[in-house]
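Feature request disguised as a bug: please show the residue count (127) next to VOC family protein in the output. Example input:
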Amino acid sequence: MSINIKTHLMFEGLAQKAIDLYTSAIPNSDVKSIKHYSDGTIEQAHITLNGNDYIVIDSPVKHEFTFTPAMSIFVTFSEESTLVEVYNILSAHGNVMMPLDNYGFSDKFVWFTDQFGVSWQLNLEAE
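Example output, currently without the count:
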């Protein structure tokens, strides 16, 4: 038996912008495949963010819901400079819920939503 689990991110017309932002901000990231609808929006894309698999789509159907901070992408960094660089890129035009700081459980931690409403938690690995 084989089981494959991937995070699925659904946008409404902004998937390409999100893909471009995420793959440029996170080191070792790539677009594996992409299929477009006739209007140019993304039917389905498979991307990796530092080796982790994601499916990204533009929904052709309008929904009454969007992303929630209760579900977030948690990223652990070994270098503070990389954490800060990724944070600065991804948090632009977003909303910071917990500013970059020492919260006791981590010397450097930040929790924010990006410009698309996707929630991110960035954490510096303990030494």
